[in-house]
């Protein structure tokens, strides 16, 4: 009988954590927290806490999407805002990175902390590796990996008592039920309601659903759009430039709270228009954020973004990547003046249209 690879990976993770018992671990989320990253981070924090290492799930950008804010409130997900204040922030012995293989440069001093693990499901070469890594591109969600780790640790059971209980509202379900619900939302969201799911995602969902609060799952995972988000969709339609079966749309300047309307607009356009791929991008703070969506299995989102943004060149502050059907990019601006933003907008649009024209 072959050994269980998940049990072996868990033992390696536990061994490293035990070597630094009573220390702290940082789990820094990349960009705007989404269900997949938040739930996977909660799972990793639980594993760490059981080995005597306190864990903080950190974020810089706000939880912007209405569905995600409801998820945090209803499930009590234990998030902590990173301040970048050397005196106020704890000293960390480890980094744990989930739903990404890169550390947001805005975390500053955390870049010097040793990386314990990376859990991710995106393609491309990882920019960050740890002592124990689980990077699987044959799954649609990082939460799928988290479920396997929790199962190997015996945590997903009705009688389990979590160490990381979060901050639940009065009358909330048990901590393990809330964590299972979060994992279920993460899988459903990142697989586009299972349209992009693989066999491991269905199996992990079935396992999480045994303990999840299913009515609450349905309440959190209803695809509701605010009037403000609908206005962003309107901007995307107004500005849409189409070449062949490819579309690109600029939605202008958005407050951080509306950042998630960029991928929502891309989802809507590619599913409702006769297009193989769509890019929607806009200015959020001092960053140009963009999302790519495609229904064409022959399109590699990560490769398309890398070519359009020329990521093979040395481009500080510019990053991007993708997986099946989805991709995203971020262009950090040193100069957010109107002429500088317009120059970047033109450069990005030209890069994508040039790629399309080249066939």
Structure description:
- The protein is of the alpha/beta class and 359 residues long.
- It is built from eleven helices and twelve strands.
SSE layout and pairings?
Elements: H1 5-18, E1 24-28, H2 35-50, E2 54-59, H3 66-75, E3 79-81, E4 94-98, E5 115-120, E6 132-135, H4 142-152, H5 175-190, H6 199-209, H7 214-220, H8 227-239, E7 241-243, E8 246-254, H9 261-272, E9 277-284, E10 287-294, H10 301-308, E11 318-323, E12 326-332, H11 338-357
Parallel strand pairs: 1-2, 1-4, 2-3, 4-5, 5-6, 8-9
Antiparallel strand pairs: 7-8, 9-10, 10-12, 11-12
Helix pairs in contact: 2-4, 2-5, 4-5, 4-6, 5-6, 5-7, 8-9, 10-11
Provide a short characterization of the protein structure.
With 359 residues, the protein is an alpha/beta fold.
Strand order of the largest sheet: 3-2-1-4-5-6
The assembly state of the depicted protein chains is: single chain
Mean pLDDT: 91
Q: What's the CATH first level of the largest domain?
A: Alpha Beta
In helices, the fraction of residues equals: 25-40%
Number of strands: 12
Quick one: overall form? globular
Beta-strand percentage range: 15-25%
């Amino acid at each position: 009988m072959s050994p269980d690879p998940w049990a072996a990976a868990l033992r390696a993770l536990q061994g490293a954590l035990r070597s630094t018992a009573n220390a702290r671990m940082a789990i820094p989320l990349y960009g705007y927290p989404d269900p997949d990253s938040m739930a996977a981070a909660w799972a990793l924090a639980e594993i760490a806490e059981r080995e005597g290492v306190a864990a903080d799930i950190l974020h810089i950008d706000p939880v912007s999407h209405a569905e995600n804010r409801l998820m945090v409130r209803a499930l009590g997900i234990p998030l902590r805002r990173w301040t970048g204040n050397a005196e106020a922030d704890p000293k960390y012995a480890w980094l744990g990175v989930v739903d990404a293989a890169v550390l947001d440069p805005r975390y500053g001093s955390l870049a010097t902390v040793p990386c314990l693990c990376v859990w991710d499901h995106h393609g491309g070469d990882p920019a960050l590796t740890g002592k124990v890594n689980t990077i699987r591109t044959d799954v649609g969600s990082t939460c799928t990996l988290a479920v396997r780790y929790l199962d190997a640790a015996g945590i997903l059971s009705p009688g389990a008592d979590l160490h990381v209980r979060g901050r639940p509202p009065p009358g909330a379900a048990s901590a393990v039920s809330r964590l299972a619900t979060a994992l279920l939302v993460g899988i459903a969201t990142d697989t586009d309601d299972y349209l992009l799911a693989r066999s491991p995602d269905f199996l992990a969902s079935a396992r999480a659903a045994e303990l999840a609060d299913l009515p609450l799952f349905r309440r959190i995972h209803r695809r509701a759009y605010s009037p403000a988000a609908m206005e962003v969709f309107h901007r995307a339609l107004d500005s849409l430039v189409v070449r062949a079966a490819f579309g690109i749309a600029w939605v202008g300047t958005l407050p951080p709270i509306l950042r998630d309307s960029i991928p929502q607009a891309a989802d809507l356009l590619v599913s409702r228009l006769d297009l193989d791929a769509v890019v929607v991008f806009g200015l959020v703070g001092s960053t140009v954020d963009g999302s790519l969506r495609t229904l064409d299995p022959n399109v590699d989102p990560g490769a398309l973004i890398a070519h359009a943004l020329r990521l093979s060149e040395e481009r500080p502050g510019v990053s991007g990547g993708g997986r099946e059907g989805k991709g995203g990019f971020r262009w950090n601006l040193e100069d957010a003046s109107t002429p500088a933003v317009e120059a970047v907008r033109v450069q990005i649009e030209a890069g994508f249209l040039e790629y399309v024209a080249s066939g």
